[in-house]
Design a protein that fits this description.
Blueprint: H1 2-43, E1 55-61, H2 73-88, E2 92-97, E3 109-113, H3 121-124, E4 127-130, E5 136-142, H4 145-148, H5 153-156, H6 158-164, E6 171-179, E7 185-187, E8 192-196, H7 197-200, H8 211-221, E9 226-230, E10 248-251, E11 255-260, H9 269-281, E12 291-296, E13 301-303, E14 306-308, E15 316-318, E16 321-326, H10 330-343, E17 348-353, E18 369-372
Parallel strand pairs: 1-2, 2-3, 5-6, 8-9, 11-12, 16-17
Antiparallel strand pairs: 1-18, 4-5, 7-8, 10-11, 13-14, 15-16
């Protein structure tokens, strides 16, 4: 019996030591895990930068005869030359062309020969995230022609080809299970994403996701703290189901620049008034009202009897300048310049005639996609 007692004592000591070591190891793992988690959180504070932050370049897709631009090809190419020169004077230009250097030679530019369905770089281009340590995440979402309205297979393949060609720096992230266009979101660079319910909840995009499910997806994949939904505002003739970059734009110092309508007889008046009231009720993350700057609508523009979605909100912010659309309406064009300048007092204002672009139901911002500083590589070799 004494022998068994001794064995029990030894077993007790053994298990005590084992359990103590196990608990100690568990405790160490928990502490280490928490420290590593904190380190990962700190090193992976991703965000979607605001458009006015420093850029490495802007992407354009050259209009060609196999796009809907064919009937006015010379006219639209002239507009793209004006736009491309204004960009290339201030930062690098990446031009996607279907043929080697087709009528589009710019200084401070690089070219990549790829085929495309159309030219709306804003909606098929990379959405880029940055972190605090200078890393980049290149998000390649699905572009399906604004809810399967138009062919988009070639456009949806562009990002992968740009990445594989070595033109951009960052981690490629395939997000093609989710439909998202660049023109449908705005970021303040501080964790707030703005979007419209009309677009993201439209048919043939991400059904059967609910608004809450889409919001959670955006917060996770765009590293956002919150999503602000705009439920009103629509422009007649808009193919995008209400892209926010045609209605409300984000600017520094918690400023929102938005379009309003002064004519009660205009079919857009009521919905834009409701949008204005909605914006007045919004609050920043600090609980303060936004500074609101109101743009007038251009006078109605028609093409073959169809009203076109002309808007002054579709401006492009680049290094040192803002390129804003004009519509051959001198007084209203000048007023738009004055309003936008209030939000960007330190930038040059450059007007670009968009009377040709609007014929395909878009404007200046829709044609472009900026790359944050450090993303676009400088490649000097010309493809011709």
């Amino acid at each position: 019996m004494q022998i068994f007692a001794k064995q029990r004592e030894y077993l007790h000591i053994f298990f005590s030591i084992f359990l103590s070591h196990t608990f100690f190891s568990y405790l160490c793992r928990r502490i280490y895990s928490r420290q590593m988690g904190d380190m990962m959180t700190k090193s992976a504070r991703w965000r979607m930068p605001a458009e006015w932050e420093p850029q490495s370049g802007v992407q354009l897709i050259w209009p060609h005869a196999d796009t809907d631009w064919a009937p006015i090809l010379r006219e639209i190419q002239s507009t793209y030359i004006e736009m491309g020169k204004a960009i290339a004077e201030r930062e690098r230009l990446l031009l996607i062309t279907p043929k080697d250097g087709e009528n589009c030679h710019f200084a401070n530019s690089q070219y990549l020969t790829l085929d495309s369905n159309d030219t709306w770089a804003r909606d098929n281009g990379f959405i880029t995230l940055v972190d605090d340590e200078g890393h980049y995440r290149l998000l390649d979402f699905c572009f399906n022609g604004w809810g399967e309205k138009f062919s988009a297979d070639k456009d949806n393949a562009l990002n992968r080809q740009i990445f594989d060609a070595g033109f951009v720096v960052g981690a490629y992230t395939d997000e093609n299970e989710f439909v998202l266009e660049g023109g449908s979101i705005e970021s303040d660079g501080k964790g707030t994403i703005f979007t419209t319910a009309g677009c993201l909840m439209a048919p043939h995009r991400n059904q059967p996701f609910s608004q809450q499910e889409i919001e959670e997806y955006l917060k996770k994949h765009l590293a956002a703290d919150r999503v602000v939904w705009i439920h009103h505002g629509h422009l007649t003739g808009d193919d995008t189901d209400g892209h926010i970059d045609t209605l409300v734009r984000v600017a520094p110092d918690d400023t929102l620049i938005y379009v309003g309508c002064d004519n009660p007889e205009d079919e857009q008046y009521e919905d834009l008034l409701l949008m204005e009231q909605e914006l007045q009720s919004l609050r920043t993350q600090d609980g303060k009202p936004y500074r609101l700057l109101r743009l007038s609508m251009p006078r109605a523009i028609f093409d073959e009897g169809q009203r076109l979605p002309a808007t002054y909100a579709n401006f492009l912010i680049i290094n040192g300048a803002v390129l804003y659309p004009t519509y051959c309406q001198p007084e209203l064009d000048a007023e738009a310049e004055r309003i936008i300048q209030q939000a960007f007092p330190d930038r040059e204002m450059v007007g670009v005639d968009c009377c040709s672009i609007i014929k395909q139901h878009g404007s200046l911002h829709c044609c472009t996609m900026q790359f944050p500083k450090g993303v676009l590589k400088e490649i000097d070799d010309k493809p011709w």
